Amino acid sequence: MKIILLGPPGAGKGTQAKFISEEYFIPHISTGDIFRKNISEKTPLGIEAKKYLDEGKLVPDEVTINIMKNRLGMDDCKDGFLLDGFPRTVNQAKALDSYLGSVGQKIDVVLLIDVPKELIFDRMTGRRVCPSCGASYHIKYNPPKIEGKCDVCHSDIVQRKDDTQSTVKSRLDVYDKQTEPLIGYYKNQEVLSIVNGTGGINQVFENVKSNLKDIHK
């Protein structure tokens, strides 16, 4: 299966991607991971991407697309893959379709993990982390035994800058602007499948498998 995974920040895409990869024996391909690998290995594409990232700029579509083509051409992608973080724009989606068409392939399904904004806010703004040992908590769903203190090392737990209300709102606004045209693009292709992402981790994965059952035969 060739799958694209979409969903807002805080929807649990990383967790579900891991489950899908293990259940269906397909590689989980994360744009961020590929950038980091190319940069650390100082590949020509990695060097080019690093120039933009060091300047705080978005990596141009052309560079991102070339990095993804290179990754999708590897042997482990022959029987399928799961894309996470790519495509982010309609231009990238069209380039992906063009590349896959040139090798006789196509995307089977685009899974959109759908979570209401109120729940995203609740999940993300309630997260806390221990800066000393890395343990993670949630003030509502997984609170520490002693308020404000890590269960493991008793250090003060903190809220990451990424999880403040203003940052979460900004990230969701960016997601909406980027992803809305992409959702329309795949809806028109009749490959978009909406997954209810409001339950617990295992329930959401059951929803994912239910959405994939007609494709994975």
From TrEMBL:
Q: Where does the chain bind Zn(2+)? A: 130, 133, 150, 153
Quick one: a GO biological-process term for this protein?
AMP salvage
Q: What is its EC number?
A: 2.7.4.3
Q: Name one GO molecular function term.
A: AMP kinase activity
Binding locations of AMP: 31, 36, 57-59, 85-88, 92, 160, 171
Q: Where is this region: LID?
A: 126-163
- Top-level enzyme category: transferase
- Keyword flag 4Fe-4S: no
Task: Give, as in the UniProt entry, the pathway in which the protein acts.
Answer: Purine metabolism; AMP biosynthesis via salvage pathway; AMP from ADP: step 1/1
Q: What is its main location?
A: cytoplasm
Positions of ATP binding: 10-15, 127, 136-137, 199
Please list where the region (NMP) is annotated: 30-59
Spell out the PROSITE patterns in the cross-references. ADENYLATE_KINASE
Its recorded reaction(s) are:
AMP + ATP = 2 ADP
Q: Which SUPFAM superfamilies match?
A: P-loop containing nucleoside triphosphate hydrolases
Describe its assembly.
Answer: Monomer.
The free-text domain note is: Consists of three domains, a large central CORE domain and two small peripheral domains, NMPbind and LID, which undergo movements during catalysis. The LID domain closes over the site of phosphoryl transfer upon ATP binding. Assembling and dissambling the active center during each catalytic cycle provides an effective means to prevent ATP hydrolysis. Some bacteria have evolved a zinc-coordinating structure that stabilizes the LID domain.
Protein known as: Adenylate kinase
Gene expressing this chain = adk
